[in-house]
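<derive_structure_tokens>
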Amino acid sequence: MTEDDPLGPLDPDFAKQFRRDDRRPPCQLYLISPLDVAGVFADRLARALDAGPVAAFQFRVKDMDQHEAARLAEPLLRICADREVAFIVNDSISLAKRIGADGVHLGQEDGDPQEARRVLGPTAQIGVTCHDSRHLAMEAGEAGADYVAFGSFYPTTTKVVKHHAEPIILSWWATMFEVPCVAIGGITPANAAPLVAAGADFLAVSGAVWGGDEDAAVKAFAALLG
């Protein structure tokens, strides 16, 4: 049982019995930006999106004036729009509204999905970080989230890891709910397959793409996801 999850642990046999429902769309790639999106990053983003299928891109910057964040986001937003890739703003409902983003991703301390819906409208994509907690995920679903994100599944250098999730939580969610689930945290082409098999609807990746050759990395994920 985790501090945030009064529901307690899942039966280990649950994962053994899980079979992905063929009626759910295939797992897709969800890119998360590095913290530094200045300079040549726009070119790197375009290269990544042209390398293979990407469902969404999350604009994630920290400790930045909103005016500067909007300035950096606008060319990236155009790149995504030209390729029909959803542009999601991390943490900030107000920034998402300001730049006309497709949605917002909220941490547990970053706002309420219902408030985001009121501000951003009925078509906005609203995601919520749920760590390793079924309880938080159910609350997010009830509040109208369009997807819930579980993790970290693997060690990562992108952010400080306070919660470690097991793949079984993806299987449980995919069995119980239609709302898509996102797996996040240290995911690479080499370790992603168990998360796909466990029921992840999206793989959220950052370091595995931006830490090297983005073209090759996206192509490797595309080969895995088929």
User: Anything to note?
Assistant: The radius of gyration is 17 Å. The mean pLDDT is 93. The beta strands are 28-32, 56-59, 86-90, 103-106, 125-129, 147-150, 181-184, 202-205.
